[in-house]
Recover the amino acids of this structure.
């Protein structure tokens, strides 16, 4: 029996080829999807817990450290764990809530975001000592 692809035997071989190819791709794409979901989940855990713990323990995230910034309580002491969690809330719920949170900083005299007001925290410039003066004073000798 002839088909648009040639004889019936050729059509069945072609169909078999595409079926085999689709099975192989589904296994491959399934593994890639699982790896992608794992990486997204890992990034989510880092974003939610890793950065929160860093900010609580050290007062800074890697980005804040590069910019010489530190998060502190309004009284100048280190953050409590609860304050660090509250500070990250709008970052977990990205979108309009985060934009509203950032807009607070534009109009606040202390440049605090809304969640910083709730958590009673500030972001300050962390003074970095001049290495030459520290060595000259014998601090780093």
């Amino acid at each position: 029996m002839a088909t648009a692809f040639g004889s019936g035997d050729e059509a069945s071989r072609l169909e078999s080829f595409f079926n085999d190819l689709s099975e192989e791709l589904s296994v491959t794409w399934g593994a890639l999807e699982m790896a992608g979901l794992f990486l997204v989940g890992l990034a989510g855990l880092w974003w939610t817990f890793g950065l929160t713990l860093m900010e609580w323990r050290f007062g800074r995230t890697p980005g804040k450290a590069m910019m010489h910034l530190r998060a502190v309580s309004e009284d100048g002491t280190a953050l409590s764990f609860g304050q660090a969690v509250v500070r990250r809330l709008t970052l977990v719920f990205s979108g309009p809530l985060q934009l509203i949170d950032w807009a607070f900083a534009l109009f606040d005299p202390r440049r605090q975001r809304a969640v910083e007001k709730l958590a009673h925290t500030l972001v300050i410039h962390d003074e970095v000592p001049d290495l030459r003066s520290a060595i000259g004073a014998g601090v780093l000798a």
